[in-house]
Design goal:
Chain lengths: ~80, ~270
């Protein structure tokens, strides 16, 4: 998936499933939208479905530091590339 | 005519203080010696040999705090307890309650044989207590550093835990209310309830702060008081899924603000 496709999917998840209103790519998700660790874990489940494979425990732990939509996109791209090696 | 306060008044005050002191020390003795003498072996056996360590730790903790509350209720008979009997029968639910006193979590643990809650991470670092709550499967309140793995594990296992009959109780205000008003709610428990499609029970707790007042070391055993715990709302997963998180939070806040008398007559 290209970054633009990922961006569309992730924004759609954040708006539809997490009820975010117009999330910006560099918004601080925690401060601006109340995104917390429980949301992060729920989002990881949706990322797994989107990518079609399960994430390892270590990969999930790394997601706990996500702060912005761009962080999410960087994270997914890294995961994608490591799984395609 | 102003005069010296009667000597009797001083004696009554002293007697009351001594009573509070004796009850408080008895509770602390149970909390420390009672744990060491009566429960530590059970916890060690459960840790080493139980095939279901989490469940065993939860049951032992429930038993320990039933003992603690039993002592408090016996030693402070002027406090009357009215606990809705249906609460202890609740299973597979997220239980949300207002928070008034440090007694509140102990009361909740004493009510549910299988219980988990969300705990501030500093408590996981306390010797013995941290070991007990970690092995009971309690969930850390944030996921910084080494708590990330623990939180991921607990949240991922929560659906199965709730489906298997366990309860998650949470005080979503995050801290004790000092004025009886309901503070803005943390949404973590509501998110878990939606994620796990679990029913939400909203409980209203009254007057525990009169028995164990925030900021005071001693129990106040002398006043006449009624401590009550009432179900004020229940939200089934199907209706909960139909609500936005904001609507769910609003409904729970309103229920928490409702006086128990207002909920009487409603079918819950």
């Amino acid at each position: 998936m290209t970054r633009d496709e990922l961006k569309g999917n992730v924004l759609s998840i954040l708006e539809n499933d997490f009820e975010f209103e117009h999330p910006g790519l560099d918004d601080n998700l925690r401060d601006d939208h109340g995104f917390d660790s429980i949301d992060a874990i729920e989002l990881l489940g949706k990322i797994e479905i989107m990518l079609g494979f399960s994430l390892s425990r270590e990969e999930k732990e790394k997601a706990m530091g996500i702060r912005t939509v761009n962080d999410i996109l960087d994270y997914i791209e890294k995961i994608q590339s490591s799984h395609h090696r | 005519m102003a005069g010296k306060p009667p000597r009797n008044s001083f004696r009554i005050q002293l007697g009351g203080w001594l009573s509070d002191f004796a009850v408080t020390m008895t509770c602390w003795a149970y909390f420390t010696l009672g744990f060491v003498l009566l429960f530590s072996v059970g916890y060690c056996v459960a840790y080493l040999f139980s095939p279901q360590r989490e469940i065993s730790f939860q049951r032992l903790t429930n038993l320990f705090f039933r003992g603690f509350l039993g002592i408090v209720r016996t030693a402070a008979p002027r406090h009357h307890w009215q606990i809705d009997k249906r609460i202890a029968e609740t299973k597979s639910s997220v239980i949300i309650c207002n928070h008034l006193s440090y007694l509140d979590p102990l009361l909740m643990i004493s009510l549910f044989k299988r219980q988990k809650t969300i705990v501030k991470t500093k408590f996981f670092k306390v010797p013995i207590l941290g070991w007990v709550i970690r092995n009971a499967g309690y969930c850390p309140a944030d996921s910084n550093g080494k708590f990330a793995r623990m939180m991921i594990d607990q949240i991922e296992q929560m659906e199965g835990y709730l489906a298997g009959g366990g309860n998650l109780f949470v005080f979503p205000e995050g801290t004790r209310s000092r004025d009886g008003k309901i503070a803005p709610l943390n949404r973590g428990a509501l998110k878990i309830a939606r994620l796990c499609r679990a029913p939400v029970y909203v409980l209203h707790l009254c007057n525990t702060e009169k028995l164990f007042t925030p900021g005071k070391f001693l129990f106040n055993t002398r006043i006449k008081n009624t401590i009550s715990l009432t179900i004020v709302d229940r939200i089934e997963p199907d209706s909960g899924q139909g609500l936005s998180l904001t609507e769910l939070e609003s409904r729970i806040s309103q229920a928490l603000m409702m006086l128990p008398a207002e909920s009487e007559g409603r079918t819950i």
